[in-house]
Amino acid sequence: MSTMTPLERTVAALTFKKPDRVPVILYFQSGVQHDVQELDYTWEEVLNHPRKLFQVVELQHTKYGADNFFLPVDFRVEGEALGSKLDYMLKCGGGMRMGVVSDWAVKTPSDVKKICIPDPTKAGRMPVILDVIRKLKKKYPDVPIAGFVNGPPDTVADVLEGRYKRLYVEMAKKSSFIHDLLELCTQTSIAFAKAMIEAGAGAIATVEGGMVDEAVSPDQYAEFVVPYHRKIRDAIGALGVPYIYHQCENATPFMDLIVDGIQPALVAFHDSVDLKWAKEKYGKKIAIAGNVSVSKSDAVLMFGTPEEVMAAAKKCIEIGMPGSGYWLSAGCEIHHGVPPENIKALVKAAALYGVYK
Amino acid sequence: MSEKLFKEINDAVVVGDIDEAGRLARQGLADNIDPMTITEKGLIPAMAIVSEKYDKKEYYLPQMLLSSEAFYEAFNILKAKLKVETTGRGKVLIGVVEGDVHDIGKNLVKIVLEANGFVCVDMGRDVPIEDYLEKVAEVHPDFLMLSTLMTPTMLSMKRTLEGLVEEGLRDKVKVGVGGGPISWDFCKKIGADFYGDNEKDALKWVESIVGKK
């Protein structure tokens, strides 16, 4: 029996108070594609039209029962606002085409100086996101909205020709313009985050997608990742808004840097992390979320039945819920390979197994 | 004299000094040293050192990719002077599957295979299934190597295998798969021949098929 609104539930869990049940907080990304198709839209339409995007995002709560709204539902907003161009050409099933960067804003180091921090009320698709957040806030004041900003290195990969490969090589060369570019991307995310908060977002969520354990060392993480996320965290923290951090792949080698250096309000764990280890080691110091498998070849959310999803979610809940400070979540984004009934199974599991006495 | 150059070019690749690696390759040619010998004694051992450092976590992707750039700077200069050998130790068709644009892992496999005498036909990333099928029919590779980093695009890998069967090409090529979400289980499920966790696994596999030099 629900006795709290999604907002009350989510905040209670985040702040280690006792919620009525474990909240289900999801990073919806290409997983909304099922609904985009049902509404007979293309990705290009839905990402560029506020009314269409609103219709799709609204379903995250009304259809699937998540305790939050999550948007943008793609990763390219900052890159596009900084001047990169998208083409809708990446096939992702059902004849749908996602946007990918086809022309990068930064080709040479000197290009960095030519780019200004974009105005979120005007640049690229940022105004679309802000408009949808305002509408969601007005219609669903009791459902928290997580505004998503790209991790600064991920935005660099969207604006720098050569993508991550070039970023990695320039890091190894110790090219100073990479820090200039990271700073520009950080300030862009801060401006966007502040605008989303003003529009009604109650939290800012982020992902570090390319700086993963198999790619970079803890020292590189400390230099190229931590200080930039910390700036975003501090800027929104000054407004009283929590920073929700997801590290793709195995966060284990970086956890101390994340918890002590970035100091987010919550870390959402990827499939690769042992949730029990995370809860025991960090669960009193920081709120955690996770991590029903969604991104490995045996991922239950993608390939399992709803019953199997519920069983996996039950295991996570049993680890996470004692002492509060826990959101039930998928191990990564909800992508288009996840069947809708499996998303609903997560919510059903929280209602069945996640009730606090 | 040659030994000194091999050592210097080796060092240049290991530390990722692109300009120096290129300069030494040109100097080697100017000194009339056989380009294949420079490759075998200078470049290939260098990438072995880099790979070892990566395994020991002394190097991570940034250093490894920088060394790869230095390798290619020298290798491309030398390759232009090598006697044309169309198949090397074996021909490998390699690419990232349709729907995925992450190609760093694929590139690392390619460099190690090329450094060890395999000829790679690089299909790039986000490659339509039909393009793989056409290319397999056209160039008759010994191996097809498919990569994906993302879970949703694992389906493209499966469909590429299905396409090979439908077109009657499956028994003409050995298929290896790899990438973040891929596993042996998945490899078996889709009917591929081999799964590798990294570039060394890939090299071991193709060498086990063609026989070591």
Please give a structural write-up.
The complex is a heterodimer of chains A (357) and B (213). Chain A has 357 residues and is α/β, with parallel strands linked by helices. Chain A has helices at residues 6-14, 33-38, 43-48, 50-62, 77-81, 111-114, 126-139, 152-159, 163-173, 176-199, 218-224, 226-237, 255-262, 275-282, 300-303, 306-320, 340-353; strands spanning 69-71, 85-91, 97-103, 145-150, 203-208, 243-247, 266-268, 287-292, 326-330. In chain A, the strands form 2 sheets. A 7-stranded parallel sheet of chain A has the order 1-4-5-6-7-8-9. A two-stranded antiparallel sheet of chain A has the order 2-3. In chain A, α7 runs parallel beside α10 and α12 (226-237) runs parallel beside α13 (255-262). Chain A is globular and about 60 Å long. The model of chain A has no long low-confidence stretch (mean pLDDT 96). By secondary structure, chain B is an alpha/beta fold. Chain B has 2 domains: 2-79, Orthogonal Bundle (Methyltransferase, Methionine Synthase (B12-binding Domains), Chain A, domain 1), CATH 1.10.1240.10; 91-210, Rossmann fold. Helices cover 57% and strands 14% of the residues of chain B. Chain B is built from 9 helices and 5 strands. In chain B, strands 2-1-3-4-5 form a 5-stranded parallel sheet, sandwiched between helices. At the A-B interface, β2 and α9 of A face α4 and α7 of B.
Largest sheet of chain B: 5 strands, parallel
Task: Give the total of beta strands of chain B.
Answer: 5
Number of strands of chain A: 9
The largest inter-chain interface, given as chain pair and residues per side, is:
A-B, 31 and 30 residues
CATH topology of chain A: TIM Barrel
